[in-house]
Amino acid sequence: MQSFVLGEAGAAAPPADAAAGAAAEPELLYALPLFRKPAFPGFYHVIQVQDPEIMDYIVRLRSSEKGGYLAGFMTKEMPEGLADSPQSETAAPLLSLPPTPQTQQGEKKTRKDTGKVASSDALMEVGTKLQVVTVTLGKNQAPSQPGGSLVVMPMQRIRRVGTISNPVAGVPLCAVETVPLPVLEVPTDESETSIEIRALNHEMVATMKDLLKMQFVNKEQFEQVIKYYNLDDPLKLADLAAGMSSAPRQDLQEVLTCEDAAERLRKVLLILKKDLESTRLQSQFRSQIEDKFAKENKKFILMQQLRYIKRELNLEWDGKQSIITAFKESIKKLGNLVPEEAAKAMDQELSKLGNLEPQSAEFNVCRTYLEWLTALPWGKFSEDNTDIDRAERILNEDHYSLEDVKERILEHMAVSFLKGSVHGKIMCLVGPPGVGKTSIGKSIARAIDRQFFRFSVGGLHDVSEIRGHRRTYVGAMPGKIIQALKIRQVSNPVILVDEVDKLGRDFRGDPSSALLEVLDPEQNANFRDLYLDVPFDLSKVLFICTANVTDTIPGPLLDRMEIIRLAGYVYEEKLAIANQYLIPQTIASNGVAKDMLDLQPEALAELIRNYAREAGVRELRKLLEKITRKVALSMVRAEAAERKLAMISLENLRKFVGQPPHSTDRLFQDAVPSGVAMGLAWTALGGKTLVVEARGRVPASNARAAQGVSRVVQREEKIGLTGEEWPDRWKQVRRLLRCYSVILCMLLQRGLDNYCKKDDRIELLAV
Ligand code: ADP
């Protein structure tokens, strides 16, 4: 047998047309392995070759005399790394006309349709004889591209009957002996098979038509090929359908191998039906995805169009113009009440706004700034009440006692009435909680007929809360004072700054200095908020501050304040406040009729003595509210006819307010024994009584020294402390030492011998 192994390039070539027609004599051909699918006869096939060795060998074969033919056999297995997906199998472009050498692949890496196999055993037995039409080297397209592509025309089906040689070095293809397989004929008689074939053919054509109506891979090529095809021959049509199909490679190989015409058509029809179904599913998914995508896209496109139309019709400009016109009108309304600098800033911003795109972020910043500028109450003042009597009546209506504050307000009114301005010191109401600091502030505003705004600076750290943010920040806002003016719409409200003694201070700045700038009558006529960046006159604003203690108010601020102290209330005052103010107020606020609740004097006295012992009356108010709420609930629960007066007496008081938190403050029920005196501790929350007992006599020399607290500390062993657990021992000790020194002085003045014996200890009792 002739060997086709090439020793030297071009030394030998396989006899190509050994016997196309003579079935007996096997033809010797080089076998080209096909990775993706078998080649079906009848239409051009593009085979992409990545392996440069195979490509070179084919070129050499072509240059030899009989190198125009190859035997195309599909490999039994798909090589590793090649996706066994229908997409990859159908990816081979099939052409109806002789193609021009190498289509526009450009620099793209060539597809791997063929490659080396170890031996001919790796190949299927049935294949196709391929006529090589064109060979295009990859390096002709791009120097770095290996391999190339072949355009082949599958001629006829062949069977491999023997192997001449397996691939060796220098010969990458197997040389095999092949015999042509019979060309299948369609019977023309009226036999059953023939009828069946015709029916199958019709069904196949119908399925292909359905398929062509849909979008599927290779549709274009399919349409192109079909134009040049003889559709009357069912077997040729079957070859075409199988060749174009995306069915699995094994199914296609079965079609190629099948010797029975009817069976073959049946197989192809099945493949076509599967293709149709999968194409249907694909298009269904595609349309679902497209729908989703289209919805989002549609909105975007419509918005673009709207914008375009608006621009075309000058509508956008109209929107912007109407904003500008609105601003112009509000600036006009403000008239010449606006200071020069602010008016200039407004004009500048307005012209800037005119040049900005309405969609730009800058436009919105500019617009918000103008909104603030034009919304402020420039030069707007509310008329003050000049009727002193009426003001006094209002103050008395709201609060009991607090004469100092009331008088100060009346003085303030008198001065501003005479002078026509309210320049002066800032008032600061200092006192324990619940003594009416905040509520008197509100009452002052009512008395002088001004708007009232309250804000607390307790725990405030950020200086921009008062002075505003710079406009460069995102979401910048003016400070609290400017916000208050915008809300109240007057330039002379009463602004109550609560809790000035609890101002914070950290890396974000010192709010006390900003507050000073706001409150100081010398500076606040030209207060410049960082956001507004134009001066605003705050001198007509009446600022009232509140604090619990003065110790923690920053010095410079305290200097400028006029401190009005509100001491706590004694029993009689609390009684009066409760009867005249709190009870009527709570009854009214809870919707209980006056004649439905009777709080007996003893019950009220008990409330004040044993339930609400604080300096102010807030706790008392809460208790009264609790009682009225409970009365309201019992009234609502009872039938209308059964409702009766709720009597709160000493006996049933606990039902309403529970156990008293305080028991007696008397340590000694009857007379105070000799050597015991009452001391008083003072705190921000009010006062505290301390019972101090002298339990010994300090020698005269030591007693004198003991006037200095430090010395007394040295003699601590002389002081005994009674009392169970000290919550904060040293704080208590300090307080007690102070009392000790007071008592010591007293005793010294009166003569120690009268009270205790020499070397006795002084015992301090804390209650
Ligand atoms: P503060 O600000 O000092 O903590 P508030 O102003 O909140 O106290 O007062 C607490 C409650 O006590 C308010 O309901 C107030 O009406 C009432 N109150 C305080 N002092 C008086 C008073 N002298 N006359 C009438 N009501 C008072």
From TrEMBL:
Residues 29-276 form the Lon N-terminal domain. It comes from the Eukaryota. Residues 80-117 are annotated as: Disordered. SMART domains: AAA, LON. Keywords: ATP-binding, Hydrolase, Nucleotide-binding, Protease, Serine protease. This is Lon N-terminal domain-containing protein. It comes from Durusdinium trenchii. SUPFAM superfamilies: P-loop containing nucleoside triphosphate hydrolases. Residues 106-115 have a biased composition (Basic and acidic residues).
